[in-house]
């Protein structure tokens, strides 16, 4: 919980230290991997964040937000195809997730798939 408080206070480096300690105590703690990934995403340490989100997923964290965040990291790195895979999974888990539709639209746009981008943008607008 200390890491969560620091995350909420935008004290990302300190929060990472807290999550590191939690992982040290329980290496199967998918929540701490996910939250540490959130800190690294905020710090624009995208590759490291991807590793944490992937580990959380491997350990059983199967929710929209984890896939969406990992997709956002891939998007920031210009890995649009990988990002699309994550955003696909996010909307599969939560059909009402307008953010993932929007970000998937951005990926499609970057890949020159304009009709598909429009479909995703329209869905995001419909939901939000």
Account of the 3D structure:
With 128 residues, the protein is mainly α. Helices cover 79% and strands 0% of the residues. It contains eight helices and no strands. The protein has helices at residues 2-8, 12-25, 30-42, 46-58, 64-76, 80-93, 98-110, 114-127. Helix 1 packs antiparallel against helix 2. The N and C termini lie far apart (31 Å).
Shape: elongated
Number of helices: 8
Number of strands: 0
Largest sheet: none
Radius of gyration: 15 Å
Question: What is the chain-wise order of helices and strands?
Answer: HHHHHHHH
List unreliable stretches of 5+ residues: none
Strand content: under 5%
**Separation of the first and last Cα atoms:** 31 Å
Short description, anyone?
The chain has 128 residues and is mostly helical. It has eight helices and no strands. α5 runs parallel beside α7.
Short descriptors:
128 residues; mainly alpha; 79% helix; 0% strand; elongated
List the helices and strands and how they pair.
Elements: H1 2-8, H2 12-25, H3 30-42, H4 46-58, H5 64-76, H6 80-93, H7 98-110, H8 114-127
């Amino acid at each position: 919980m200390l890491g969560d408080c620091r995350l909420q206070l935008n004290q990302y480096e300190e929060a990472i230290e807290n999550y590191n300690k939690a992982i040290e105590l329980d290496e199967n703690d998918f929540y701490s991997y996910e939250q540490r990934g959130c800190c690294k995403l905020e710090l624009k340490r995208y590759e490291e964040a991807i590793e944490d989100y992937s580990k959380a997923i491997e350990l059983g964290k199967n929710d929209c937000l984890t896939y969406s965040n990992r997709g956002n990291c891939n998007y920031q790195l210009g890995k649009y195809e990988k990002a699309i895979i994550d955003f696909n999974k996010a909307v599969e888990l939560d059909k009402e997730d307008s953010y993932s539709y929007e970000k998937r639209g951005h990926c499609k746009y970057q890949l020159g798939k304009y009709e598909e981008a429009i479909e995703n943008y329209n869905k995001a607008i419909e939901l939000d």
